[in-house]
Amino acid sequence: QVQLVESGGGLVQPGGSLRLSCAASGSFFSINTMAWYRQAPGKERELVAAITSGGRANYVDSVKGRFTISRDNAKKTVYLQMNSLKPEDTAVYYCNANIVVITIKDYWGQGTQVTVSS
Fold first, then answer.
1. Which parts of the chain register pLDDT below 70?
2. Residue 49 CB burial class (10 angstroms; 0-12, 13-18, ≥19)
3. Strand, helix or coil at 63?
4. What is the pLDDT of residues 84-99, one digit of tens each?
5. How would you classify the pairing of strands 57-59 and 46-51?
6. How far apart, in whole angstroms, are the C-alpha atoms of residue 70 and residue 59?
7. What is the distance of C-alpha 107 from the center of its chain?
8. 8-28 as b/e, with b when 16 or more CB fall inside 10 Å?
């Protein structure tokens, strides 16, 4: 059974930094794209950043230059380094991975709260 387990959320002051991690476990053949989404209260879930198995990354415009997505394929883990955090970055952050088991399927983590406030 495939699971994604996130860690690293918390409370930080504006301008601060946090690093999120998401590790995949279980039996599967490979992981394609891994991504981070976020959902703020009263808003729809949005894609924040994604990274292919080859390391190509893309970002939503609002986080470009502040957030960096990376992955360690050997550890089956994706990271999101968040710098210069703003109050509008406050949300629940979800890890997503496109994983090849018998078929290709999207899996989600349980979510981790990030709160940016003074």
1. none
2. buried
3. helix
4. 999 999 999 999 999 9
5. antiparallel
6. 12
7. 12
8. bbeebeeeeebebbbbbeeeb
| pLDDT computed for residue 55 by the predictor | 95
Other CB atoms closer than 10 Å to residue 38's CB: what's the count?
A: 22
Predicted local confidence at residue 5, as pLDDT: 95
In this structure, what token pair is assigned to residue 83?
């710098």
Check: CB of residue 107 under 8 Å from CB of residue 115.
no
Distances (CA, A) of 46 to 13, 35, 38, 54, 81: 22, 11, 6, 23, 17
22, 15 Cβ separation under 8 angstroms? no
CB 97 within 8 A of CB 4: yes
> What's the pLDDT at 1?
87
